[in-house]
Amino acid sequence: MLIAAYIRISSLRCINKIKNFMPFSTVPDPDLPELERNHNFNFDLAVIGGGSGGLACAKEAVKFGAKVVVYDFVHPSPQNTTWGLGGTCLNVGCIPKKLMHSASIYGEVIEDAKRYGWATENKKHDWATLVENVQAHIKSQNWKLKIDLREKNVQYYNEYATFVDKNTIKSVNRRGQERTVTADKFVLAMGGRPNYPNIPGARDYAITSDDVFSLKYPPGKTLCVGASYISLECAGFLTGLGYDTTVMVRSILLRGFDRDCAEAVGRYMEDTGTRFLRPATVKNIECVKQPTDTTAPELKVFYELDGKEECEIFNTVLFAIGRTPLTDKINPEAIGLKYEKNGKVPVNDREQTNVPHVYAIGDIIDAPELTPLAIQVGRLLARRLYAGSSLLMDYVNVPTTVFTPLEYGSVGMSEATAIKKFGEDDIEVWHARHTPTEHTVRESPDLDKHNYVKLICVRSQKDKVVGFHYLGPNAGVYNTQNNEEIRRIYRCGILLIIKMLCRSIAEDYFN
To answer: Which is more confident, 361 or 1?
Structure first.
């Protein structure tokens, strides 16, 4: 917390000095000339995908006179879950995840409150109330987004769009009615959907992150399959809400993140009640008892654990084993669009595909899959297309947070990545453990042994900071909600303060 507080204080003091680092303005330049059109298409820009990036691009483009249409349509999940405008983050991602994570944290606060003199008897959580309020918030935001598009003169179609030719789109609504429009340029921002394994019973009985946030019945004993941040976040809040939760891991936790921090997250989760099976893989799922509107099913799960065949009953099985972009669903062959086997669309530094008038942003390109980043990319792209800007997105040093019970915030390189790039002899790593003051009288103070700060420096570059990792309470507040602010601080070298502080803490602890 002390480290995070220094980030915040430093940023507030320096904010006026570094405004020039802002990558875009939220207000259009009044001196810009009226947009010139050299085409006869229905729209200047068609955006396929109504998620964070697509909507940001559309709303930015209309500021500069572009005529824009947005298409968004959600096919139901195998468990028949669907949702409204706003994309994955709002409906089945960041927002409901953060709300349910907060719900589980409130449970911890109730326990800790006893040590502060509060009488907190009869602690009980009601799943139906949580889901009702989370979904009410999401639906209110769906409605606000529609109103916002209307007020900004962005045409919105709740229709499934596919290419007919290089400038023509055909769309179909829920009633099967078709519409054809033409556009000068296109932005692909369809995002992706969760993967299912090719095993018996997976699509019939299991759920994914598409379903858990609107689940009608309490999940009961739950198996989260996968070691991704989605799996660990879901397992974390389910454990915090009082459900018997198991995480099935094939190999390592949080691939791509710092190893020390990833394993620390896992150890904290184990210490707070989450069970781990590793190395393990699911082989088959059978339904023993069907669900009702208020009760979960009973599912018999057959799996292999460390080479041995096992079987166990769970109420809910949640797969979080990766996501696949929806690139192949828009008839890309009609325009000759190139994309990888995993669905990712190759783009240049201007987010331009191999088709010159078609651009791609968000989760369908090879870039960090983060909402604040997608919003930035969308806005910058719109400004380049219609406002004469030349600013490109910088994909380096993007802060991110994993909302596990022990939150994990990071920016820059992991230790392994830094060693690979600069060599082990040129890397200096500073570590520190810390206990927030408010935790010194908590119910289980020993849990604070997991709170951890790690700073990665390059000796030959005057101890330049290339990686900062923080494990502890409120990592998301300082890392995700102040995403661009932290990037500017990082660029300006303000993390020298953090390095000095971290070094001081490390010396106090280890000397």
So the answer is: 361
The CA–CA distances, whole Å, from 476 to 285, 372, 470, 483 equal 35, 13, 10, 9
| Rounded-to-integer distance, Cα 48 and Cα 68, Å | 11
Q: How many angstroms separate the CA atoms of 101 and 3, rounded? A: 23
Residue 251 CB burial class (10 angstroms; 0-12, 13-18, ≥19): exposed
Q: Which three-class secondary structure state does DSSP give residue 45? A: strand
Q: Is 140 exposed, middle or buried (0-12, 13-18, 19+ CB in 10 A)?
A: exposed
d(Cα 448, Cα 436) in Å, to the nearest integer? 8
The tokens of 464 are what?
């330049």
Q: Which residues pair with 47 in a beta bridge?
A: 70, 187
Pairing of strands 245-248, 275-277: parallel
Residue with structure tokens 């179609």? 157
Which residue, among 395, 374, 393, 375, has the nearest Cα to 384 in the 3D structure? 393
* DSSP line for 184-234: EEEEE---EEE---SSTTHHHH-B-HHHHTT-SS---SEEEE--SHHHHHH
What is the residue type of 501? L
Bridge partners of residue 37, in order along the sequence: none
Cβ(453)–Cβ(495) below 8 Å: no
Residue 23's pLDDT is: 39
Of 447, 326, 402, 478, residue with least CA distance to 94: 402
Query: Rounded CA gap, 255 and 119, in Å?
Result: 42
Percent of the residues in the chain that have a pLDDT greater than 90, as a whole number: 75
Task: Say if residue 495's pLDDT is above 60.
Answer: no
Q: Are 125 and 132 in contact (CB under 8 A)?
A: no
**Buried-exposed string 174-201: b where 16+ CB fall within 10 A, e elsewhere:** eeeeeeebbbbbbbbbbbbbbeebebeb
Cis peptide before 279 (omega within 30 of 0): yes
DSSP 6-36: HHHHHHHHHTTTSGGG-S--SS--TTSPPPP
Overall pTM > 0.70: yes
Instruction: Determine how β-strand 358-360 pairs with β-strand 160-165.
Output: unpaired
